[in-house]
Specification:
alpha+beta, Pdz3 Domain, 4 domains, five-stranded antiparallel β-sheet, 21 strands, disordered N terminus
Length: about 525
């Protein structure tokens, strides 16, 4: 069966895009007859078009071909379809227009996780746990995540009417919301852990990250901060320049922060600190975890190499590759790795990906920390910090102080994956409304004891999730913390959730013990 003319035209356009990509990357100038290989590729396309048993989807074929080509390079050279470009851009540009909620689709209906701070949704009174049962009078049952975004995102000033089903209310009710510009924050929470220790959690490195970070530092300084824990756990990275600017606040003038090296001269760059260093004398601890990657590793590596901060936690992910994004004419894009980045001492943080993508990703989250003992780092290249301490390349940032996160039981993981904590907290908050009157006294009023295990087992069973009671008992500290933080999210949003999580976090509590050492390696006076 012949391909229809319009389909055939799109088929040829897609093939031409592959050739255009080759031209963009100067592949025709390389040895080995790349032009001949493109011709071979087009021959296969023509054969599939002419002979395949069913009519082919040319767009899907070309997407697959591009994906396959980039997979031969490294795990971070990727193709981005045009449908995803807007979402990705919004994530890192730092704002979008809509109503401003974090949500999931659960039981085939959108469920509000939290309204974003100072968003139209928050101002309209939406709460954690609200179920959005209709949008513009149309049932949301069976809607996808993308479908929710398409209906709730929109131009600033436009109105959308949603219908909410809320615990404690007999009937759903309508809410009219005027869309507005929604900031997407990088600093998820910032507060004082005690009279002198500040805590800032940075979730990603986006366009406004350093500006948010400076605002948080100024706020905590006004509250008496004399030492700081910077939490980069599970920060997957983002804009390199934002990490560089954050490091610059702690280093004296002229210190190299990071450098990149690649095959083309334009990929080779060196980044140095400037003379404007307001927090040069602030004792600093940086928390990292297996999910800390890329820009977060740049920051942790620079702080460690210059002995400016103590790194605490677990070995980071190990992503040390720099991508350059090339926009294609149809609105899609490719990200091509053009360089490797190195810490000031010359460490390459990139882990090996020779055994395939699945092992590359799984290896970073292995419960056995790859750099946790002397034997595991025996084969790694050794570098030295400014003061002569040994640090290791080729496998993420190895903390100065290893502090493992708790190993959770299968039962607790089932509660997390089944969103039992979230649902339990929503019910608990609905039946204890006075808990939301004062966040300062909240923890004392919700001092859970071991009886919460029985409550969660019963609650999970009502959701048709069966778990072992003894396993939850072994995770009692985490269980109490997660229930408490989810209840706080219901009353005060995600910042309160992250605050409770940090206050009750064993890694944070352990990190507080090491400010003496952090000040000593940085040659600073510690403040208690």
């Amino acid at each position: 069966m012949k391909m229809p003319p319009t389909k055939y035209f799109r088929f040829l356009v897609a093939a031409i895009l592959v050739i255009a990509l080759a031209v963009k990357l100067d592949l025709f100038a390389t040895a080995g007859g790349v032009y001949d290989q493109i011709q071979r590729f087009l021959e296969v396309l023509r054969a599939v078009n002419k002979l395949y048993v069913e009519e082919v989807d040319s767009d899907a074929l070309i997407d697959g071909a591009i994906d396959g080509m980039l997979e031969k390079l490294d795990p971070h050279s990727i193709y981005i379809p045009k449908e995803r470009m807007k979402e990705i851009t919004e994530r890192f540009e730092g704002e979008f227009e809509g109503i401003g909620i974090e949500f999931i689709v659960q039981d085939k209906v959108p469920l509000v996780i939290s309204p974003i701070a100072d968003s139209p949704a928050e101002r309209a009174g939406l709460r954690s746990g609200d179920r959005i049962v209709k949008i513009e009078g149309v049932s949301t049952y069976g809607i996808t995540d993308q479908g929710v975004r398409e209906k709730l995102l929109g131009r600033k000033g436009t109105k959308v009417t949603i219908e909410i089903q809320r615990r404690g209310f007999d009937e759903p009710f309508a809410v009219n919301i005027i869309r507005d510009r929604i900031p997407v924050y990088s600093v998820t929470t910032a507060f004082m852990l005690d009279e002198s220790a500040g805590y800032i959690r940075v979730g990603r490195f986006a366009k406004t990250t350093n500006e948010e970070f400076e605002t948080a530092l100024t706020l905590l300084e006004s509250q008496g901060m004399k030492r700081l824990i910077l939490d980069l756990r599970n920060n997957s990275g983002g804009y390199l320049d934002q990490a560089v600017e954050m490091v610059d606040a702690f280093l004296e003038d002229g210190k190299r922060i990071v450098f990149t090296r690649g095959r083309i001269p334009s990929a080779n760059e060196d980044y140095y600190s400037t003379s404007d260093t307001p927090y040069r004398n602030l004792p600093l601890i940086v928390l990292v975890y297996h999910g800390s990657a890329s820009a977060s590793e740049i920051m942790a590596g620079a702080m460690q190499d210059w002995d400016r901060a103590l790194i605490v936690g677990e070995t980071s992910f190990g992503k040390g590759l720099v991508q350059h994004q090339i926009g294609l004419k149809d609105g899609s894009a490719v990200r091509i790795t053009v360089a490797r980045y190195y810490t000031p001492s010359g460490r390459l943080i990139q882990r090996s990906y020779e055994n395939g993508l699945s092992e590359y990703i799984a290896g970073a989250y292995d419960d056995d920390d790859p750099n946790a003992d002397a034997d595991s780092v025996a084969g790694k290249p050794v570098f030295t910090t400014n003061s002569g301490r040994n640090v290791y390349g080729g496998g993420g940032i190895t903390p100065d102080i290893q502090v493992k996160s708790p190993d959770l039981s299968a039962a607790t993981i089932k509660l997390i994956q089944g969103r039992v904590f979230f649902q339990y907290a929503a019910d608990y908050a609905a039946s204890h409304p006075r808990l939301g009157e004062d966040i300062a006294t909240f923890k004392d009023k919700v001092a859970f004891d071991a009886a919460i295990v029985d409550e969660l087992v019963a609650f999970a069973s009502s959701m048709k999730i069966e778990v072992q009671r003894n396993e939850l008992e072994n995770d009692l500290a985490f269980v109490k913390r997660r229930a408490m933080s989810q209840i706080a999210r219901h009353f005060w949003g995600s910042k309160a959730y992250h605050r409770i999580e940090a206050q009750e976090d064993s890694q944070v509590a352990e990190a507080l013990k090491y400010f003496d050492k952090a000040a000593r390696i940085a040659d600073l006076d510690v403040v208690r």
